[in-house]
Write a structure and sequence with these properties.
With 416 residues, the chain is an alpha/beta fold. The protein is 44% helix and 16% strand. The protein has an eight-stranded mixed beta sheet, with helices on both faces. Helix 2 (26-38) packs parallel to helix 15 (346-366). The radius of gyration is 22 Å and the shape is globular. Its cofactor is NAD(+). GO terms for molecular function: adenosylhomocysteinase activity.
């Protein structure tokens, strides 16, 4: 087995941290037990490009228990945990990733991961799927899974342009992922990343959130909970109206820029905060991105504009702008909850990764009946994941009695 990681000697420490995460992932533990008994992936090869965290390792162990041969690379150069990579390699999983790797190394690792000629690909951001489609003649892939909003947008564009070669399940769009991972997980890890990078006080600060999708909702909620005054910017009228009714001020970015102390992008769109915004920001404004790619804050434009640059803390770069004002970019403009923190808590990723694991089994059973398009997670998988989580929490649900079931399927009963 080949691999390219930082230091295999970190394996024991990595496994200890993985074991801690696994304690908080009871749904995935049940799925792993099922896979270990049934071996649904025996003889199948799976290539994955994911954030290499302790929680991701728990997912990969479940797939490995089901018989899969696995190869893994990073989906973000700053989200890789080197000790987790070592633990995975020690367990027989080929890993090609190192924290902070440069772009050529990142691209080489994508190619090394695809060298196993996978039957299925698991992606977070669609870099692996895009790389695969740039390789002529690769036809071993039967299906794929995409985990995040940005990646789903890319894969849907491929499907719309009729270049997608195989069916892809959009795990991001299923309720047990979107409502919890995006809102509660991203909400918490974004704030965590900002605090670790800066140690600033949020109480009393003006906190600008670009985008009020599920991630933006979670970030705004957590920032307000820590005492910040939150402003939201949006391009969608319905989401803007929702933000207002949730109690937030809504302003276009050019009006929010002079007011904000801390800015977070969560849109999936490029160039959300740009040169004209930097020029009107307060001295000391902090910039962070919670979207998948480092494109939402125009870092190239910021560097062109700056007259000086300094690395003040591990995940914080100071840019001196004209007129002796300074702004601070966190995590190189990359996903701040992964770059400076530890990603979403294990209890949240338990849901998302159970969706991924069960969708993987579904695809390998159903791919022959699926066209090369983007599909939702089957509702029965989503509902089962939610039910397993509630059972693990010791929560019971009401059930409908016979009269209620009859009413549900009747039309005669009404006002008269």
């Amino acid at each position: 087995m080949s691999y390219d990681i930082r230091d295999l000697a970190l394996a024991e420490r990595g496994q200890q941290r993985i074991d801690w995460a696994a304690r908080h992932m009871p749904v995935l533990r049940q799925v792993r037990d099922e896979f270990a008994a049934a071996k649904p992936f025996q003889g199948r090869r799976i290539a994955a490009s994911l954030h290499i965290t302790t929680e991701t390792a728990v997912l990969l162990y479940a797939l490995q228990a089901g018989g899969a041969e696995l190869a893994l690379c990073a989906s973000n150069p700053l989200s890789t945990r080197d000790d987790v990579c070592a633990a995975l390699v020690a367990r027989g999983i080929a890993v090609y990733a190192q924290y902070g790797e440069d772009l050529p190394t990142y691209q080489r690792h994508l190619e090394q991961t695809l060298a196993i000629q996978p039957h299925l690909v698991m992606d977070d951001g669609a870099d692996l799927i895009a790389a695969l489609h740039n390789r002529p003649g690769d036809n071993t892939v039967l299906a794929g899974i995409e985990e995040t909003t940005t990646g789903v947008v890319r894969v849907r564009a491929m499907a719309d342009q009729k270049v997608l070669r195989f069916p892809v399940v959009a795990v991001n769009d299923t309720p047990t992922k979107r409502y919890f991972d995006n809102r509660y997980g991203t909400g918490q890890n974004t704030i965590d990343g900002i605090l670790r990078a800066t140690n600033v006080l949020l109480a009393g600060a003006t906190f600008v959130v670009a985008g009020y999708g599920w991630c933006g909702r979670g970030i705004a909620m957590r920032a307000r909970g820590m005492g910040a005054r939150v402003i939201v910017s949006e391009i969608n009228a319905t989401r803007a109206l929702e933000a207002i009714m949730d109690g937030f001020q809504v302003l276009p970015m050019h009006e929010a820029a002079p007011l904000g102390d801390i800015f977070v992008t969560a849109t999936g769109m490029a160039g959300v905060i740009r040169r004209e915004h930097f020029l009107t920001m307060k001295d000391g404004a902090i910039l962070a991105n919670s979207g998948h790619f480092d494109i939402e804050v125009d870092t190239a434009g910021l560097r062109d504009l700056a007259v000086g640059e300094a690395q003040l803390r591990e995940h914080m770069t100071e840019f001196e702008l004209p007129h002796q004002r300074k702004v601070y970019l966190l995590g190189q403009g990359r996903l701040i909850g992964q770059a400076a923190a530890e990603a979403s808590p294990a209890a949240i990723m338990d849901l998302s990764f159970a969706d991924q694991a069960l969708s993987t089994r579904y695809l390998l059973e159903a791919y022959q009946q699926l066209d090369p398009k983007v599909y939702d997670v089957p509702s029965e998988i989503d509902e089962r994941v939610a039910a397993l989580k509630l059972r693990a929490l010791g929560v019971q649900l009401d059930t409908l009695n016979q009269d209620q079931l009859a009413y549900q399927h009747s039309w005669q009963m009404g006002t008269v």
